[in-house]
Amino acid sequence: MADELVMPRLSDTMERGTVARWIKHEGDLVASGDVVAEIETDKATMEYQSDLDGTILAILVADGETAELGAPIAIVGEPGEAITPRPAADHTSVTAPVGASSAPATPRVTTAPVKASPIARRIAEESGVDLRELAGRGSGPDGRVVRTDVERLIARAGRREELPPPRAVAPVAPPAEAEVVDATRIQTVIARRMSEAKATVPHFYLTAEIDMTRAMTTRAELNAALAATGEKVSVNDLIVRACGLALHDNRQFHRSWIGGKVAYHPHANVGIAVALDDGLIVPVIREVERKTLRQVASEARDLAKRARTGQLRQPEIEGGTFTVSNLGMFGVAHFAAIINPPEPGILAVGATIERAVPVAGSIAIRPIMNLTLSADHRSSSGADGARFLQSVQRYLEAPILLVG
Amino acid sequence: MADVTYREALRLALDEELARDPNVFLMGEEIGRFEGSYKVTAGLWKKWGPKRVRETPISEEGFVGAGVGAAMLGLRPVVEIMTVNFILVAMDMVVNHAAKVSQMFGGKVKVPMVIRTPGGAGAQLTAQHSQSLEVFFAHTPGLKVVSPASPADAYGLLKSAIRDDDPVLFMENLVLYNLTGPLDTTAGDGAIPIGVAKVVREGGDITIVSHSYTVRRCLTVADRLAQSGIEAEVIDLRSLRPLDVDTVIESVRKTSRCLVAEEGWATFGISAEIAARVHRACFDDLDAPVERVGSAEVPMPYAKSLELAAMPLEEKIEAAARGLLAECGVL
Fold this sequence. Notes:
Radius of gyration of chain A: 25 Å
Number of helices of chain A: 9
Strand content of chain A: 25-35%
CATH architecture of the largest domain in chain B: 3-Layer(aba) Sandwich
Shape of chain A: globular
Distance between the termini of chain B: 40 Å
Largest sheet of chain A: 6 strands, mixed
Order of helices and strands of chain A: EEEEEEEEHHHHEHHEEEEEEHEEEHH
Oligomer: heterodimer
Radius of gyration of chain B: 20 Å
Strand order of the largest sheet of chain B: 3-2-4-5-7-6-12
Shape of chain B: globular
Number of domains of chain A: 3
Order of helices and strands of chain B: EHEHEHEHHEHEHEEEEHEEHEHEHH
Structural class of chain A: alpha+beta
CATH superfamily of the largest domain in chain A: Chloramphenicol acetyltransferase-like domain
Number of strands of chain A: 18
Largest interface: A-B, 18 and 13 residues
Number of strands of chain B: 14
């Protein structure tokens, strides 16, 4: 009996995927678990493993083509079996057209039953949510719409209602002389996530000046000792390690506000913002509190390198509990960054600049670095954030603790 | 409040009931001079003598039948079957007599008898001695079945079982005998009503239902899930017949996800019953079908590696919980 391979959900935020290339082709035998294709999501390119056994009878979405989540992309069955491939476009038409609900007197025409769990149906009905918006795109088996999908949809809808209505202005047309191109997937995701973050997360900001004298000495000593191995520790590695330890020390800061609950993070998974040619990506170093400074440095270097060549795997850009964003290399003295929800905060790192500072009653020239913490005021108070920042400062000003 | 073992809690309850009611007596193989194969009756023969603590030959059908007769005539026998596996030769006495006599005599005769017996696996006792057969009795109208998972529940439920006018199968578990837990013997007499489940851990993300030793495993699983930010509610059924399904329903209405784990075989098992009732009562509350975990559907193998593979250990329960949560887009 022929069955369909469908466009899988490979990231939380993807809504459609592109077949980068088929590895198996029509006529090839596949077993469950075989990699059949590479799929480009909004964030990364990932391998797609078949969950079916049989022969690929037809490929419905060719290399480079895009399909909605849950849409069939290939048919698998017995050789010679008669198949009637359902065109991929059929699937997308299940989604209700925007504005369809504005004519309540007209009975709705359902094109296909939506597969949803009973509680998802009940919550949708009670909240007046149209389940067809989620048809085939749920997080359950075979795209079954489940409770969290509906709750997320309601949360989004709620947020839309809270926002002031858009001002009635003519749509902004790009200036005639501008060159207009389609946004890349990464740009689209950044635009959406950053707008959501700024609109829904109440940020507060704390800045501290760090005396980097000892950190710079420690780093120089380390790098001299490591010269033969080719390893190198950067200022950013010191900061990431300091954040990992400080997050671990400050449980009351290291927690996220998620759907009305407070989630405490057992491990410090620190993301490092890596600038791309056009955009950015945030690979995550896991369990930083358990790793040595050298491990952090070598992982950071590997992740940053693969980030720039587009070779990160999905799990490497998920699960962060904090982010470090460093613009020091551009000479930026200080800045405030936007939180990547649901993380509790993000640390903006400025350049280390020699400054005249009072030391023991006289003026000394010291390398000073500004750190600005953006924190989510739903998960932490100003004092929680301040204690965390103070920990970071303590580790950076006594850097022996970072290697100890 | 002192910490006692499950075994001591049972012995305390027996001792106190022997003191409270002269109609109570114990009967079973090697429970006197030898103090029981698992030492639950330690010291009782010395204290109460051979009339109240009766030693029997190896003759389960005979002494279970004697228990039924004694109970019909007004005594309160507490019969020990060395392990549940040996009750099979006495099934006629349990199912056709103990369970039915009262109803067939129009309620004029009662059978206030307790049969205490341990089940469970994990000690390489192989196929015939590693079973959890409580479902046979939970299936049978006319019987009551309890299966405590903690010393305090063992103590309190045994007291209630002895005082109950119906025949009660009191299902113990070999691994539980050495488990320690708090027992407060100062507040009242400690009897715990039969037919009331207990929420032993509160949580809002998934309901995990079990009984007997499996409850301990589920609590460990709940701790592991908590490390992933999942709060599991763990329910100890305590009684299998009557079954307190309301406590389970109330929990599932809150969590919308339900996993049932048992040491018996899941096919036609306790978990099948719970799943059926939850699907009926909570259909509109469920986010995914009820998931079940039981022992592998084979006679228990002897080889240690195979025995471990067949049992519903923490890893299997955790994997089932995570699978269920993944089906619901959580985790």
